[in-house]
Amino acid sequence: MRPVLSLAARSVTRANFQPRLAPRLFSRTYAMGHTVPPLSDKSLLKTLSYVNGEWVGAASGKTFEVTDPSSHEVIATQPEMDAADTRKAIDAAAAALPAFRKLTGRERSRMLRKWYDLMAENAEDLAKLITWENGKPIADAKGEVTYAANFFEWFSEEAPRIYGTTIPASVAGNRIFTIKEPVGVCGLITPWNFPAAMITRKIGPALAAGCTVVAKSPGETPLTAAALAELAHRAGIPKGVVNFVTALKNTPEVGEAITSSPIVKKVSFTGSTNVGKLLMKQSSATLKKLSFELGGNAPFIVFDDADLDTAVAGAIASKFRSSGQTCVCANRIYVQRGIYEAFAAAFAKKVESFKVGGGYEAGTTHGPLIHDRAVSKVESHVTDAVKQGATVLIGGQRLPDLGANFFAPTVLRDMTVDMQLAQEETFGPVAGLFSFDTEADVVRLANSTEVGLAGYFFSKDVQRCYRVAEALEVGMVGVNTGLISDPAAPFGGVKESGFGREGSHLGVDEYVVTKTVTMGGVGPLQT
Ligand code: SIN
């Protein structure tokens, strides 16, 4: 692999792609001219971590490589930090806390607003970095930058409005009121699938509340995080308030340094359920406040009475967003028997129009998966389903001519409950279509999983819309829409998808503690 340390334009030409299993449904060729555009502001590309307002390396001097999932080329290196480096970042956050928490909500609001403005001004460059290290098409990356920046805008508006309450006391002469105080130093651990938005969704409310943070950058996508750190610096966020720790191989060690630190009072994590369980166990010794957004296995239900085009568009948006690599992507698509054939045909036809390729290539609608482990999981779900009787309508195979991380957007029909895809989140571009007969049956099937993040259904029957929305065991329901992510909407799950809500008017609650003040002996006015 060749290290590429500048963002000078380069090109990688790929061989044409001839699909193997379903040629009739795919475009015939994927001729690739893969050009990485240069950043307008090259100083946004950092190869160091941001701690206590300074750019630093790991004390050991070790680094890890960041690779482009499309081309497998090494883009840059980042410090491979360890537990000792992490503790320095935690100390910096602790030192910054007393002054930062004393600022008024309005002062913190202005800082977040400035950071938001800088993200908007540098949106093109941030999007280029996201595409480069994550692989998603540049149009999606631009969408992510907007989504991410909007969390800063939203929480800049919440910061001055963190209200306590006054409570009528049971004891005559007493007066009770509450104050919302920052919980303290927060450890934030985020994934690679939204290199910007998952970070801003946590830092926004933390800073609004008056907390200081140590954010562990995603190992696969640390460059976007580093660019955000640079913008924090330019926005005048005081030193030590926002710190980024980078690691790839040392991620478990860094995670444990955060969860075991008595200084860190809160951990917010987005990632897999298994890692969430581990972090929760590690955090128990110091009884931290926690919020976890973990894995999903979203049911997506199409009733006979749904509008077909709306349901197909919703399924495409929900299933194939980021090539299926989001926690809220549809995973099990249940279609009622009366509409099944029409839905399957229309859905596969839409998938046929996708253009898979490098994220910068004109017209690319879907990029690569993040790494080979992701491709192997997707492939095993397809192989297992086909072995157990599913039919491939389109796709079904790797796309080696495009690169090792590419997998064809796939639609499978005749899925059954024993298949791997029915049991666990695929996190990739494979849509499995199940059929069902009754509302009661499909709700039972939809809820037959340990996780409950998002669920979707399509119907024109208003009573059914209420009934099913209430019956689904998930934290978020999309009714007649496949896209539910919005900074204004509470985001989070139930069951083993975690707890806590991000974004929205509830987001700040995860970063504050309520202090109750009871004043005695006030008594009535003596006349
Ligand atoms: C996630 O995949 O965890 C987040 C998706 C979103 O915010 O829409």
Automatic annotation (TrEMBL):
Q: What range(s) does the Aldehyde dehydrogenase domain occupy? A: 55-517
Coiled-coil spans in chain: none
What residues sit in the active site?
A: E293
Pathways involved: Amino-acid degradation; 4-aminobutanoate degradation
Q: What CDD domains does the entry give?
A: ALDH_F5_SSADH_GabD (cd07103)
Q: Which PROSITE patterns match?
A: ALDEHYDE_DEHYDR_CYS, ALDEHYDE_DEHYDR_GLU
**One Pfam family of this protein, by short name?**
Aldedh
Asked if Transmembrane is a keyword of the record, the answer is no
Listed EC numbers: 1.2.1.16
InterPro entries according to UniProt: Ald_DH/histidinol_DH, Ald_DH_C, Ald_DH_CS_CYS, Ald_DH_CS_GLU, Ald_DH_N, Aldehyde_DH_dom, Aldehyde_DH_Superfamily, Succ_semiAld_DH
Keyword Repressor applies? no
Listed under catalytic activity are: succinate semialdehyde + NADP(+) + H2O = succinate + NADPH + 2 H(+); succinate semialdehyde + NAD(+) + H2O = succinate + NADH + 2 H(+)
Keywords from the named record: Oxidoreductase
Tell me its family. Belongs to the aldehyde dehydrogenase family.
Q: What is this protein called?
A: Succinate-semialdehyde dehydrogenase
